Amino acid sequence: PLAEPRPAAPLVERAAFVGIWGPTPVACGQRQRRRGFLPATITEDGAKAGRTTCRFRNNRREGSAWTMAADCSERGRRWTSQVRLLVEHDRLTWTSGKGQANYIRCSRKSD
Question: How does pLDDT run across 5-25, given as a tens digit for each residue?
Answer without folding.
Answer: 665 555 556 789 999 999 988
